[in-house]
């Protein structure tokens, strides 16, 4: 008997005014699975991720994360319950600039999960060590490079002990040198069995860590598949054209 | 803050007005400077009272203004609209008119189960001045909050912070540096406006000056006495203005 998928997205539609961003999306992600969403800019990747953690309300369809029906959430309290399980890492890191790296990691567990400060601090140091920034604990975001900030942001997400982490083009704003260190960090999470959904332009990385590749264009899924088949033998003309431009 | 040049011009202005008055004084009258010195303790006491009113007004107005500001940025349209019009009314009414309102709408004492509590004029003036301060602070608060990138809200919400936590822990601590310069500006204006309380009969510095001049009965003293008070206010408010400018420049560089 197969386990129920951790994330189930079915028939999701979203429009901003007359602009249809998502026109019927179906994706399922198993526990421990890694789903990579690729596609040109403006294809709806970011919006889809924001729908999964409730930052954006969908117009129709259903989104389920574990036992939470995301599409039916309305009150702040319900959304907070969801966000304790689903973390998101943003393209622009969005660290809190007035707090040190350590405080950035510690704030949510203390104020949202109401955990004991000493317990959180120990975990925060361990997480910073995990992303290779133990010695930067006392630094402010402005004193860190883009790649370091992004790794702090990943540690901040992990501190909530989420079931799923969403990565919204987390390397797109970085210079090529630091892209590597961030990808290395994500690779570590995948190896630990963390369920991840990534919107990404890093095809090589998607191919390596993903077990499901979804190609999104114009708000619809053009093609999906396991990486080996998807990258080696894409079926759709649109996919071939996109891949030939990127690779 | 108070540079040598500023101090020089302040003293020159004051000395000029004293000399001018002295020249017009009738023979046999006490010297202008001596008269000023004689009344200085009383007047300075009054001036300190003005400062006390300004501090109390600012504290009350800021507390109320932050609450109103939180309503101004509410996502609920009826709350936001009501707060908006409430703010507009108090921001666009003359300060003196608001003071008269408070003056005549409130009793001079309150009866409570524990006895009668007096409600003196200076408290009325403080409340009257706090109203426009409240309206202006609420707008400063709103402006500071919306000047932050929306991504900070998204990041906080994504980590499960609720609305008030997001404001208190993430948004306001960052926005406060942007709110500080206009807030200090407002305080300087408020301090100058405390002299309006003289119209309500509060024995602050302007009232005292008028009383002193009435007692002396010498028209040539008008200029040095009012000039004296003017210099005090200037020397108190000018450094605030300079410091505000400095902060503005520093934050402009920082962001």
Strand share of the residues of chain A?
15-25%
End-to-end distance of chain B: 25 Å
Radius of gyration of chain B: 23 Å
Based on DSSP secondary structure assignment, what is the total number of beta strands of chain A? 10
The overall pLDDT average of chain B reads: 92
Report strand % of chain B. Answer: under 5%
SSE ordering of chain A: EEEHEEHEHHHEHEHEEHH
- This entry's quaternary arrangement is heterodimer
Helix content of chain B: over 70%
Instruction: Report low-confidence residues of chain A grouped into runs of 5 or more.
Output: none
- Largest sheet report of chain A: 6 strands, mixed
Shape of chain B: flat
- One letter per element, helices H and strands E, the order of chain B comes to HHHHEEHHHHH
Question: Helix content range of the residues of chain A, please?
Answer: 25-40%
DSSP, total strands of chain B: 2
- Most extensive protein-chain contact, per-chain counts: A-B, 25 and 17 residues
The total of helices of chain B stands at 9
- Would you tell me the structural class of the helices and strands of chain A? alpha/beta
Question: How would you describe the overall organization of this protein?
Answer:
The complex is a heterodimer of chains A (247) and B (255). With 247 residues, chain A is an alpha/beta fold. Helix content of chain A is 38%, strand content 24%. The mean pLDDT of chain A is 93. Chain B has 255 residues and is mostly helical. In chain B, strands 1-2 form a two-stranded antiparallel ribbon. In chain B, helix 1 packs antiparallel against helix 9 (222-254), helix 4 (95-105) packs across helix 5 and helix 5 (121-146) packs across helix 7 (163-193). Chain B starts with a helix and ends with a helix. The mean pLDDT of chain B is 92. Chains A and B meet through helix 2 and helix 3 of A and helix 6 and helix 7 of B.
């Amino acid at each position: 008997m197969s386990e129920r998928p951790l994330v189930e997205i079915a028939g999701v539609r979203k429009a901003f005014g007359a602009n249809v961003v998502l026109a019927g999306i179906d994706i399922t992600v198993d526990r421990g699975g890694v789903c990579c969403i690729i596609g040109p800019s403006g294809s709806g990747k970011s919006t889809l991720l924001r729908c999964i953690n409730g930052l954006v309300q969908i117009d129709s369809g259903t989104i389920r994360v574990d036992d939470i029906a995301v599409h039916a959430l309305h009150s702040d309290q319900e959304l907070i319950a969801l966000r304790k399980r689903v973390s998101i890492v943003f393209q622009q890191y969005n660290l809190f600039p007035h707090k040190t790296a350590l405080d950035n990691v510690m704030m949510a567990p203390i104020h949202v999960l109401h955990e004991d400060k000493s317990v959180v601090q120990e975990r925060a140091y361990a997480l910073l060590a995990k992303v290779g920034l133990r010695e930067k604990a006392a630094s402010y975001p402005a004193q860190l490079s883009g790649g370091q900030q992004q790794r702090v942001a990943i540690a901040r997400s992990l501190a909530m002990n989420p079931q799923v982490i969403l990565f919204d083009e987390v390397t797109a704003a970085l210079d090529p040198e630091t892209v590597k260190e961030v990808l290395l960090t994500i690779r570590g999470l995948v190896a630990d069995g963390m369920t991840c959904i990534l919107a990404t332009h890093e095809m090589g990385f998607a191919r390596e860590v993903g077990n499901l590749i979804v190609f999104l264009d114009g708000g619809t899924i053009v093609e999906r598949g396991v990486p080996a088949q998807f990258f080696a033998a894409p079926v759709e003309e649109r996919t071939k054209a996109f891949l030939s431009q990127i690779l | 803050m108070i540079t040598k040049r500023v101090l020089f011009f302040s003293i020159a202005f004051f000395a000029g007005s004293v000399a001018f008055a002295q020249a017009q004084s009738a023979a046999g009258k006490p010297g202008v400077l001596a008269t000023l010195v004689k009344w200085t303790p009383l007047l300075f006491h009054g001036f300190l009272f003005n400062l006390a009113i300004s501090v109390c007004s600012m504290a009350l107005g800021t507390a109320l203004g932050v609450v109103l500001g939180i309503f101004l940025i509410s996502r609920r349209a009826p709350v936001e609209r009501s707060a908006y019009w409430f703010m507009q009314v108090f921001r666009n009414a003359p300060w003196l008119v608001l003071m008269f309102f408070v003056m005549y709408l409130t009793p001079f004492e309150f009866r409570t189960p524990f006895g009668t509590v007096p409600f003196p004029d200076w408290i009325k003036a403080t409340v009257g001045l706090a109203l426009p301060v409240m309206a202006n602070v609420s707008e400063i608060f709103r402006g500071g909050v919306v000047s932050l990138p929306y991504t900070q809200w998204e990041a906080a919400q994504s980590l499960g912070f609720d609305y008030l936590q997001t404001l208190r822990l993430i948004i306001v601590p960052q926005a406060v540096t942007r709110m500080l310069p206009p807030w200090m500006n407002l305080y300087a204006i408020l301090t100058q406006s405390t002299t309006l309380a003289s119209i309500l009969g509060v024995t602050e510095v302007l009232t005292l000056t008028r009383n002193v001049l009435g007692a002396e009965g010498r028209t040539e003293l008008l200029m040095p006495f009012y000039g004296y008070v003017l210099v005090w206010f200037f020397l108190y408010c000018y450094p605030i203005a300079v410091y505000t400018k400095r902060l503005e420049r520093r934050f402009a560089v920082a962001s």
